[in-house]
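Example is below:
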Amino acid sequence: MLTFGLAVWQWQRGADKARLIARFAAHADRVATLPAAMAALPDMRRVRIGGQPLGAALLLENSLLDDGRAGVRVLQPYRLTDGRAVLVDRGWLADGAVAAPPRALDGAEGRWMPSPRRFTLPGAALAAAGRLDAIDWPALRRALGVPLHDGVVVLAQAPAPLVPWPALPDIAPERHYGYALQWLLMSLGLLFAAGRFVRRGRPS
């Protein structure tokens, strides 16, 4: 039954989010150094990064803070000591504000987070520089001309007028558990209704 399958799917998603939270908390007190920490996929660990700005910044539109303020995430490519590049989230910038040019990083601390990937509708700006709705990763790799790590370092501190972007996992497993319960109750309701229909259809 479809509704029961959806209940199982939502429960599994909740369990996945719970594991993400546990992984995020497990790295709270440990700080790794880049690029050595990049051997694996982004795992939300705390890291220190050093590198030089490379190429133009990406301004990720439709980035809302928790209080609802609209702005952009300023994502700047940096070249690391291993010759590769990585996107660094310098912080959130309010619409209309202007941030200072990027500086070299020397031991700045942040979180090694998964890359922001968005579902976009036709007409959305998919690009590798400037204001955009989603990142064109192949075009960005071509523009940089060096291998690009698949992840983003979200800096813990940002110079004004930038505001540090909240480096948090996509959490709220309780929401998925709630959806799972709703689908399960719907499944039970449909089974009950089907049972009554079958009984009514039987000859006396």
The chain has two domains: 1-28+172-204, 34-169.
